[in-house]
């Protein structure tokens, strides 16, 4: 049941599979772009160091059951988790989060559901 629900969610069109052999190209593209910005002095050395990729892992998805909501097992809802730790864009996302966090928390609102 759990595996069937995972596969149904992954095949819903919300996710796209990244081929393993595509990862190296993404790593190189991001570092090349960041290096080009640094050479043009559009970003500092510190910013370049923060956004360049250091990991070589393809992001992956998994699902956690929402056990706090009382339902029978066959109707269990799943929470999708996409782990991109050490992926090509992890450092860039972390850097952008630092910049955007203070601006976004000033907005009076919230996201109800991202899917």
Q: What key phrases describe this protein's structure?
A:
alpha+beta; 4 helices; 10% strand; single chain; 115 residues; 42% helix; flat; two-stranded antiparallel ribbon
Q: Can you walk through the features of this model?
A:
This protein is α+β, with helices and mostly antiparallel strands. It has one domain. The chain has four helices and two strands. Strands 1-2 form a two-stranded antiparallel ribbon. Helix 2 packs antiparallel against helix 3 (45-51). The longest helix has 17 residues, at 23-39. The chain is flat, with a radius of gyration of 18 Å. The two termini are 21 Å apart. The model has no long low-confidence stretch (mean pLDDT 79).
Distance between the termini: 21 Å
Strand content: 5-15%
Q: Structural class of the secondary elements?
A: alpha+beta
Shape: flat
Low-confidence stretches: none
Helix proportion: 40-55%
The largest β sheet comes out as: 2 strands, antiparallel
| Helix/strand order | HHHEEH
Strand order of the largest sheet: 1-2
Please, what is the average pLDDT? 79
- SS field, number of helical segments: 4
Instruction: Quickly count the domains.
Output: 1
By DSSP, the count of extended strands is 2
């Amino acid at each position: 049941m759990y595996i069937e629900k995972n596969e149904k969610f992954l095949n819903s069109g919300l996710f796209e599979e990244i081929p393993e052999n595509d990862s190296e190209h993404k790593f190189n593209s991001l570092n090349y772009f960041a290096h080009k910005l640094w050479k043009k002095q559009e970003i500092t050395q510190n910013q370049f160091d923060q956004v360049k990729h250091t990991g070589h892992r393809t992001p992956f998805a998994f699902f956690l059951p929402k056990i706090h909501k009382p339902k029978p097992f066959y109707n269990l809802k799943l929470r999708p988790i996409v782990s991109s730790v050490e992926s090509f864009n992890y450092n860039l996302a972390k850097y952008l989060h630092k910049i955007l966090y203070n601006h976004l928390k000033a907005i009076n609102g919230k996201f109800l559901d991202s899917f």
